């Protein structure tokens, strides 16, 4: 059943001091802080069945170590977007889960990380510890959320990731923060079922080798690696891409175009879908794209374009910060803060 859409600012991290522009419903940032529009979504996917799906879109996120910037409204024209600032986009596939370890089809089943997965998430955090992050998006599944939290615990900026809870008025009220100084040291975490792994239907919970023995290797390979052929009662990669890319374009891309730095912790297929969009891959090219667990991938958003900068290979890797002046300045600022 569809819920009535609503939009209001998240109370847990928002600071006062916004004012309305003449003839414009967007809010302008006066003091350090951010504004988030919240909306209930339809439960239109098998992945969201049984959940109250809540998403939040930040239209002006926390001020970073570098210069604060304001986010454009949803009606920002293409011409004005070309003048926006550079921003970093970090994509991380969650660390190894308990069902990855057991070689089971997981899909939208909510399974946590293994000890190895925890270690992978921590290492991923070390690799991005010098890259700015203003806001975090994760799927609604615990393995992606664990990865995001463990990764950010390693960041040198030492800001605390705070999950936004807007399930009810009471949840919003009870999760408020009343210290302005504390708010400045927090990073909002937005969870969205649209970033979930693709739903594997009747394969979920089955052993991959036993499934191949039962249905044949070719059939299972077609379900796993084709673009538009779903497993029984499940999603194809194409179906997963429709929801994941639509969410990225509506909620995440505007932040990047406005200069906000975003981290997305999600899953192999939802991230492959987003990378397909960013790199303009064909349906044939994307099916051969493999993403390792716990390995961050860096993109730079500038002048309306996304440029892949590879994956930071270690916490002290200097080369990644030489790609842009802003990243180098950010790392220099972090060095000054710890002296």
Please describe what this structure looks like.
The protein has one domain: Rossmann fold (3-Layer(aba) Sandwich), CATH 3.40.50. The chain is globular, with a radius of gyration of 20 Å. It has helices at residues 78-81, 98-101, 115-127, 142-152, 169-174, 180-184, 208-215, 217-225, 237-257, 268-279, 283-286, 325-337, and strands at 19-20, 27-28, 35-40, 54-60, 87-93, 135-138, 160-163, 186-191, 262-266, 296-302, 305-308. A 7-stranded mixed beta sheet has the order 7-8-6-9-5-10-11, sandwiched between helices. A two-stranded antiparallel sheet has the order 1-2. Helix 3 (115-127) packs across helix 4. A hairpin with a 2-residue loop joins strand 10 and strand 11. The protein starts with 18 loop residues before the first strand and ends with a helix. It has 339 residues and is an alpha/beta fold.
Quick description:
With 339 residues, the chain is α/β, with parallel strands linked by helices. It has a single domain (85-337), classed as 3-Layer(aba) Sandwich (Rossmann fold), CATH 3.40.50.1240.
């Amino acid at each position: 059943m569809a819920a009535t859409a609503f939009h209001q600012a998240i109370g847990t991290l928002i600071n006062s001091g916004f004012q309305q522009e003449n003839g414009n419903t967007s809010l302008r940032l006066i003091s350090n802080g951010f504004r988030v529009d919240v909306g209930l979504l339809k439960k239109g996917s098998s992945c969201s069945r049984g959940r109250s799906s809540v998403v939040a879109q930040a239209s002006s996120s926390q001020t970073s170590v570098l210069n604060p910037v304001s986010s454009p409204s949803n009606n920002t024209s293409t011409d004005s977007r070309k003048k926006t600032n550079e921003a970093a986009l970090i994509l991380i596939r969650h660390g190894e889960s308990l069902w990855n370890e057991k070689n089971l089809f997981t899909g939208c089943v909510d399974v946590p990380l293994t000890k190895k997965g925890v270690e992978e998430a921590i290492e991923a955090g070390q690799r991005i510890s010098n890259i700015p992050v203003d806001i975090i998006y994760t799927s609604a599944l615990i393995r992606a959320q664990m990865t995001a939290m463990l990764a950010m615990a390693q960041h040198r900026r030492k800001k605390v990731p705070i999950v936004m809870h807007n399930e009810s008025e009471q949840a919003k009220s009870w999760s408020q923060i009343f210290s302005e100084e504390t708010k400045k040291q927090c990073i909002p975490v937005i969870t969205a079922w649209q970033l979930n792994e693709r739903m594997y239907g009747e394969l979920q919970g089955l052993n991959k080798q036993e499934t191949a023995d039962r249905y044949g290797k070719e059939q299972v390979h077609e379900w796993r690696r084709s673009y538009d052929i779903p497993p029984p009662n499940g999603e194809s990669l194409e179906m997963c891409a429709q929801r994941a890319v639509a969410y990225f374009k509506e909620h995440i891309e505007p932040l990047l175009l406005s200069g906000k730095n975003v981290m997305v912790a999600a899953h192999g297929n939802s991230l492959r879908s987003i990378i397909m969009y960013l790199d303009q891959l064909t349906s044939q090219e994307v099916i051969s794209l493999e993403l390792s667990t716990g390995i961050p991938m860096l993109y730079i958003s500038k002048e309306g374009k996304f440029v892949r900068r590879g994956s930071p290979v270690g916490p002290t890797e200097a080369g990644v910060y030489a790609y842009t002046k802003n990243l180098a300045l950010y790392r220099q600022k972090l060095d000054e803060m710890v002296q």
